[in-house]
Design goal:
This protein is α/β, with parallel strands linked by helices. Helices cover 42% and strands 16% of the residues. A six-stranded mixed beta sheet has the order 3-2-1-4-5-6, with helices on both faces. A hairpin with a 2-residue loop joins strand 2 and strand 3.
């Protein structure tokens, strides 16, 4: 069992790291098996948090309105991580968002990681659900605020320690840190058709939107078009 590592979790505005944003980072730095430091911070997104995300996480637009921007929070989190191994539940999801967020400021984020979800899939094939909540229920691990980043990170650290206690000796391979990988794809520029349609919508709706037709990406144009059509 690792005695020093970072357990972390992020809450986001959606599931796509190329289109959606991190709104909260929660992490704990473990040294010699004990929590040495904590990282808990909101990030002010560039778009509104949807009712569905608020319903899931409890995070409202008001809660993030005074938060620092992504570039500042992510930079501080990268410093917090140092050279530690990252531990997460479905860690590739959280890593992909951190990787994309860091890449926006040309910051490297190459890490080794351990995934408690993959461990559970190997050692608990009998369980119908390997979600963090289901595994915490199974092992009677208290999570006072599920779907909030720090509390999920803390629950993940406890789950890792529990799984290692019971299974690492039998299954040492699945407990070894692996190189985390995610290829950040370069955003595709918006098409002339998208830009023309967006300009027309903005004019018809008299919308006040800060955007640049020369730099807007295809996915960002699609998002703005969807918002204007819904509104």
């Amino acid at each position: 069992m690792l005695k020093s590592y970072i357990a972390f979790d992020v809450e986001t505005t959606g599931l796509n790291p190329l289109e959606n944003e991190i709104i909260e980072i929660g992490a704990l730095k473990v040294r010699d098996g004990k929590v040495a430091e904590r990282f808990m911070e909101f990030i002010r997104p560039t778009v509104s948090i949807s009712p569905a995300i608020t319903s899931l996480t409890g995070i409202t637009n008001e809660m993030v309105s005074d938060a620092r921007p992504r570039c500042q929070v992510v930079s501080d989190f990268l410093d917090f991580c140092e050279e530690d191994v990252l531990i997460g539940h479905n860690v590739s999801f959280d890593y992909s968002f951190m990787k994309c967020s860091a890449a926006l400021d040309n910051l490297p984020f190459e890490k080794m990681g351990i995934d408690t979800l993959k461990i559970a899939q190997k050692v608990h094939k009998e369980l119908s659900s390997k979600s963090l909540g289901s595994l915490c229920d199974y092992y009677h691990i208290e999570n006072k605020s599920a779907h909030r980043a720090y509390h999920d990170a803390l629950a993940t650290a406890k789950l890792y320690q529990t799984l290692a206690h019971y299974f690492e000796e039998k299954e040492p391979k699945i407990f070894k840190p692996m190189q985390l990988t995610y290829k950040v794809k370069k955003p595709q520029p918006a098409t002339p058709k998208q830009i023309a349609f967006l300009e027309n919508l903005i004019r018809k709706r008299h919308a006040q939107i800060d955007w640049n037709p020369d730099t807007i990406s295809r996915s960002e144009a699609s998002r703005l078009i969807d918002e204007l059509l819904k509104g």
